[in-house]
Amino acid sequence: MTTTATATKQFMTSDQLLEDWQGHRNLTRRVIEAFPEKDLFEFSIGGMRPFAKMATELIGIAGPALKGIIDNNMEAYNEEGFKPGTKEDILKKWDEETEVINHYFNMISEERFQETFNLFGEYEFPVYQNVLYFIDNEIHHRAQGYVYLRALGIEPPFFWERF
Fold this sequence. Notes:
Distance between the termini: 52 Å
Oligomer: single chain
CATH topology: Four Helix Bundle (Hemerythrin (Met), subunit A)
């Protein structure tokens, strides 16, 4: 019996993935900035949460989840820890979490991206899929923020200007 090895080519490096993610985070930060303070915390459409709640969720997921991956800790997700009172609180914490993300993301080896991890004790996928979930979740909520801004008569940042 003969076996043939197929060489695989890497689509992107982990550094490129982090750069792409941080571009999304840059854009989401600009969406947060675009909101008037009151509307950031109060405005809602169709029963969706105000954008401050969505931003707080994003803050509570990525950094803690990456730390959990590094520490092999599958603790349940908890968004109760951070309770911002102002837009500035959110932006400050957003920037702090950006550094947390950079720190822990850079500790994940190329091999580890392929390992299965039970994120928050609920979602068992390879680490790279967990990271893609963080990015997808952010894009999803940012799109809701775009709808809110447009409903408020505010032009959101161009979606392609991520850096």
